[in-house]
Amino acid sequence: MYFFYLSALAIPAPALGPARFADIDISKLTGDGQEAAAAALKVCPVDMNGKDQQQRHDIAEDAELEIFNPAIAKATGAEKDTLQCQKLRNKILKLTCEVGAAKAKGNTAKAEEEAVKLNKNIGLVNECGGKAGAAPAPAKVDTPAKADTGAKANTGATPSVGPAKFADIDISKLTGDGQEAAAAALKVCPVDMNGKDQQQRHDIAEDAELEIFNPAIAKATGTEKNTLQCQKLRNKILKLTCEVGAAKAKGNTAKAEEEAVKLNKNIGLVNECGGKAGAAPAPAKVDTPAKADTGAKANTGATPSVGPAKFADIDISKLTGDGQEAAAAALKVCPVDMNGKDQQQRHDIAEDAELEIFNPAIAKATGAEKDTLQCQKLRNKILKLTCEVGAAKAKGNTAKAEEEAVKLNKNIGLVNECGGN
């Protein structure tokens, strides 16, 4: 369960629905286990519905049994080694999708069991070619042509074990989305790095936050302030990635999971930076269906002032984008640094709207109007659960936060099936 927060630099996320092996094959990537893990999360992203995750798992499993195993049985020498490394990358894809499918079903035990296997295979890919990140050239086997990764170069190769300086590990000035920053952070603190070095890199990033970014942000204004805030968020992704790794190295699973929740939040916040360093988030698109008006204004994405709010001030139900857009808008209503009391109040408003506005309206509606209202209710659920996760975290109730985060991910996936409704 430690790679749930990743997404890939490698290949575009496939559209929801049936896929073929040629569409999802990551076996011929030539990087390390982290690259394969990131690519797998593009095929089976965390917000994909369980049915599609399971279908992609089955495709990868069929490829293992019908393509890789027979080819490996016939091969020898370097060709055999190459095929075994390709099979390992395919296993990373298979297990990533299996973890996601289990999470979508609420089967946490299964997700954790498969995550252990996933981590093991990521480590084994790191051994391909005798050193991390070196993989043999693709073998000539009956598999689809190598996918074009289209990936941007990272900030650098995985650092050698030992002390580092901020200049060596700085990812703050990357210009891509949160997934790019997460992948770069995993180059700085890869999963197989020892806990001492992960902790040292965490401390360096934390010092930079306190001594570089915070003072600079306090003095800046306008576009410069936005730029610095986005750079600080990327640095937070680095800090938290290393902290998750250090906690895992110490066997502190609870701490690793707690920091992973924060990490996911910051990845989402970087996604609001507009795709480049410093770009202010664009206002959310809104849509007001003629027969499904809740009577509330759609939220524009601006962080509300702390204090009591009304539903009209926080309503995100009429957004027309995917689950990620709704999740980002919800984080504007209940940002991670908002106090627990205000997060709880916004949760209660969204819950009241669900019970008093959406449920009665859905009960009376039919056809397309009903579908529209159900999708609006799902977006409101994303708001409600985002605020509930934040309120639980503010109270130090990690178990509750994690429980609600599972529901949140499920609803994000369901909104992705709304198709703009």
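The above is record 1. Record 2 follows with the same two-line structure.
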Amino acid sequence: MAGAFRTTPTHALEIDMAVPPIELTMEMTAEGYANRLHRLRHTNPVIDRLPDEWRHSSQTGNPPPLPPRTKAQVKKGTKLTQLERTARLMYQPEMGEKIDPFFMLPWQRTAKDRPQRLSISGVPKGCKKAEEAKKHNEKVEKLVRDNAHLLVYSDGSMREEGDGTRRSTGWGIVRYHLGTEVFVDKGRLGHNAKVYDAELTGIARAVEAAKEYAD
């Protein structure tokens, strides 16, 4: 509430109440949301539904189920709304910069910087669980006889308590050296954390435990 007369000029009232003009407010909102769009990956379903100028290439990772309207399908003489006319005057995709949120910072090292000390490998697509378990057991049998290797397992889980309205998450790790269990640790993350948080916490704690044991 401004407490001013109804006939007070809008421009003077905006200055008195420190309210930015509607043009600047809309421009700030549009640019802020555009910056969020520039951070999206090319496989994101939102970026797939935007015009081609929002992507470096016209190819979409997950094309929408219905194709967008082409220029030929748009009726001639269709009037734009006031919001559409304002949007065309404010922001254009080429005015922004594409940002990769997953790009590593220059001072951060990754597994590629330590090829002899750290390697990350995943399970190939289309593999069978029994075959991969057999390969894992065969590899473990070789590692447990090597004094230079340390096996560390981590896990995160969630369970329901009481009537199912409360959930508790936790993590746990265990490490083996020469076939002998040398360390066990576990912890709780409370009722607000997710299984994903517990999994990552377990991995981080396993890396710390392996480093402490190696030192």
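Helices lie at 10-16, 22-38, 45-48, 82-90, 129-143, 195-214.
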